Automatic annotation (TrEMBL):
<dbReference type="InterPro" id="IPR017714">
    <property type="entry name" value="MethylthioRu-1-P_deHdtase_MtnB"/>
</dbReference>
<comment type="subunit">
    <text>Homotetramer.</text>
</comment>
<dbReference type="InterPro" id="IPR001303">
    <property type="entry name" value="Aldolase_II/adducin_N"/>
</dbReference>
<dbReference type="GO" id="GO:0046570">
    <property type="term" value="F:methylthioribulose 1-phosphate dehydratase activity"/>
</dbReference>
<dbReference type="GO" id="GO:0019509">
    <property type="term" value="P:L-methionine salvage from methylthioadenosine"/>
</dbReference>
<protein>
    <recommendedName>
        <fullName>Methylthioribulose-1-phosphate dehydratase</fullName>
        <ecNumber>4.2.1.109</ecNumber>
    </recommendedName>
</protein>
<dbReference type="GO" id="GO:0005737">
    <property type="term" value="C:cytoplasm"/>
</dbReference>
<keyword id="KW-0486">Methionine biosynthesis</keyword>
<dbReference type="Pfam" id="PF00596">
    <property type="entry name" value="Aldolase_II"/>
</dbReference>
<keyword id="KW-0028">Amino-acid biosynthesis</keyword>
<feature type="binding site">
    <location>
        <position position="99"/>
    </location>
    <ligand>
        <name>Zn(2+)</name>
    </ligand>
</feature>
<feature type="domain" description="Class II aldolase/adducin N-terminal">
    <location>
        <begin position="9"/>
        <end position="197"/>
    </location>
</feature>
<comment type="similarity">
    <text>Belongs to the aldolase class II family. MtnB subfamily.</text>
</comment>
<dbReference type="InterPro" id="IPR036409">
    <property type="entry name" value="Aldolase_II/adducin_N_sf"/>
</dbReference>
<comment type="function">
    <text>Catalyzes the dehydration of methylthioribulose-1-phosphate (MTRu-1-P) into 2,3-diketo-5-methylthiopentyl-1-phosphate (DK-MTP-1-P).</text>
</comment>
<keyword id="KW-0862">Zinc</keyword>
<comment type="pathway">
    <text>Amino-acid biosynthesis; L-methionine biosynthesis via salvage pathway; L-methionine from S-methyl-5-thio-alpha-D-ribose 1-phosphate: step 2/6.</text>
</comment>
Length: 209
């Protein structure tokens, strides 16, 4: 099996699992996995595809500029430049971007503050926050329609080989050294967002009583 096929299968498995969680509404979201560092090449989801289906046109190989490495009729996902920034700046091997109701609502609630923080939650350990008083802060950036501008704003928060950034009313992008780590961070983030929203709802109910 070639390296590209191996990476393709890994990304396809992640896509299938996330699709099962209903995290690709309206063909939204995109996934990427690094194939080579020098020169940079990675597989990324093709734009406009139904991610609930598994086909031979799910992904395409792109280079350091986010453009197809080979002649193809497929178009890279609109946010491909975000993945480019991740792989240029870190040793990450996989990056995932999904739109969910929970992460969009969280991004709107805390968007003016520019970040959302979690403390005392067990799942922040997924981000290697192990101290008892540890705080996980996930930055929130504006949803610039111009993708190069969005990528520039996004790149300011790529500070390690793994991490997460929310785009206001757009979705979350996570990255990790391995596909498993990236998926772990995505799952942990979505748990934290759902927990926070339910906690706020309960507090509102208690206040109204």
């Amino acid at each position: 099996m070639s390296l590209i096929q191996e990476k393709w299968d890994q990304l396809a498995d992640i896509k299938e699992e996330l699709a099962g969680r209903d995290w690709f509404m309206g063909t939204s979201g995109n996934l990427a996995i690094k194939v080579a560092a020098e020169p940079l090449q990675f597989l990324v989801t093709a734009s406009g595809k139904d991610k609930r289906k598994r086909t031979e046109e799910d992904f395409l190989l792109v280079g350091h500029d986010g453009k197809p490495a080979d002649e193809t009729g497929l178009k890279p996902s609109a946010e491909t430049l975000l993945h480019v920034e991740i792989y240029k700046r870190t040793k990450a091997g996989c990056s995932l971007h999904v739109h969910t109701v929970d992460n969009n609502v969280i991004s709107e609630l805390y968007g003016d503050a520019g970040s959302v923080a979690f403390k005392g939650q067990e799942l922040i350990k997924a981000f290697d926050r192990w101290d008892e008083d540890a705080v996980l802060t996930i930055p929130i950036i504006p949803n610039h329609a111009h993708i190069p501008k969005l990528a520039e704003s996004f790149s300011e928060h790529i500070l390690a080989d793994s991490g997460a950034v929310l785009i206001r009313n757009h979705g979350i992008t996570v990255w990790g050294r391995t596909p498993f780590e990236a998926k772990k961070l995505l799952e942990a983030s979505e748990f934290l967002f759902r927990y926070q929203l339910k906690l706020l709802q309960l507090k509102q109910i208690q206040t109204a009583i």
